[in-house]
Every structure is written in structure tokens, then in C-alpha cells.
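REQUEST FORM: STRUCTURE PREDICTION
Request ID: SP-0412
Submitted by: Lab K.M.
Chain count: 1
Length (residues): 85
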Amino acid sequence: MRAAPMPALDRLLRLLFTTLAAAFAVTGLLFFCFPDATVGTLNAAGRPLGFPPAPASPLRFWLSLAVAYMMLVTLLAAAIARDPR
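STATUS: Completed
RESULT:
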């Protein structure tokens, strides 16, 4: 017995959340592999907006939080992509 065809909205949601899951995973990996470049990029983006640069620090507590959050949103997006309804 064949499954009923997936509605167009479900296909669109599956594509959207699969793409988001991949983007979140890549971003989390970039945060983890290049923490100094992450801070540099954020400083460069904030400079034209008048934000002060983030201070240099050997502490990396923000990194564990950022990577954990990106892992969480990656898993949530993947779960939604698996079953959009």
C-alpha cells in the first residue's frame, strides 16, 4: 500500500527546515572551529552601527553556550523537517 502524496505545504516546510538545520549546523561548527573569527566578524558588523567592540578575553564560556544553542536549534529544525505536521 502506497502512502498518500505529501501536500505542497508539507514539502515546502520539509525543504525549509532541512535547509535551516543545515545552516544552523554549519554555523555552530564555524563558531566552534573559529571562535576568534566569530568575535571579529561580530565586531566588524557592529562597528558601522556604533556598537563598541567586544573585549578580548581568553575565556570561552560564550562558546559553549553558542555551540549548545546551535545544536539545539539544529535538532529542532531537523525534527520539524522529519514531520512538519
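NOTES: The longest helix spans residues 8-33.
Reviewed by: T.R.
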